[in-house]
Each structure stands twice: as structure tokens, then as C-alpha cells.
Amino acid sequence: METKSRTIAKALTWQALGLATTGALAWLHTGSVTSALTFALSTAGIGLAFFIVHERVWARVRWGVAQAIPSTPTVR
């Protein structure tokens, strides 16, 4: 299971990429930097919150996770 700080770091980097993409697309569609930034920031905030919740829920799901095989110490 990954730590909460790792989940948050992943969420922040993912949202930064999404913010740039959404902002660029919104600007191309609206022609307004202000409208594009407002739209991009609001979707980024909502997306960040849902991503963190999504990751934390999946961190608790054991389905599809391979179990680590413990190594046996070598006797010399």
C-alpha cells in the first residue's frame, strides 16, 4: 500500500498536466484567457479531490495485486 503523501504527490503532478491541457483546450474554444483559466482551475480542483479518493479506495482493494514471495535467507 502506498503512503498518503505519495498518493497526493501523484495526484498533484497528474492535475498539473490536466490543468495545462484543459486550460489550453478551453482557451482554444473560448478565445478568452480568463474563461479558460477559470474553467481549468475549477475542473482541476474537483478532479484532484476525486483522484485522491479514487486512489485511496483502490489502495484498499486486494484484487489483482500479486503477493510478494518472501526471500529465504542463505545459510553459510
How would you describe this structure in keywords?
76 residues; mainly alpha; 2 helices
Give structural notes.
The chain is mainly alpha-helical and 76 residues long. It has one domain (4-59). 71% of the residues lie in helices and 0% in strands. The chain has 2 helices and no strands. It has helices spanning 4-30, 33-59. The longest helix is centred in the N-terminal third of the chain and has 27 residues, at 4-30. The radius of gyration is 20 Å and the shape is elongated.
The arrangement of helices and strands along the chain is HH
Q: What's the count of strands?
A: 0
Distance between the termini: 34 Å
Structural class from helices and strands? mainly alpha
Radius of gyration from CA coordinates: 20 Å
In the predicted model, the low-confidence regions spanning at least 5 consecutive residues are: none
Q: Considering DSSP H and I runs of 4 or more, what fraction of the residues is helical?
A: over 70%
- How is the biggest beta sheet arranged? none
Mean pLDDT: 86
**Looking at the structure, what is the overall shape?**
elongated
Number of helices: 2
Total of domains: 1
Measured by DSSP, the beta-strand proportion falls in: under 5%
Task: Please sum up the structure shown.
This protein is mainly alpha-helical and 76 residues long.
Strand and helix map with partners:
Elements: H1 4-30, H2 33-59
Helix pairs in contact: 1-2
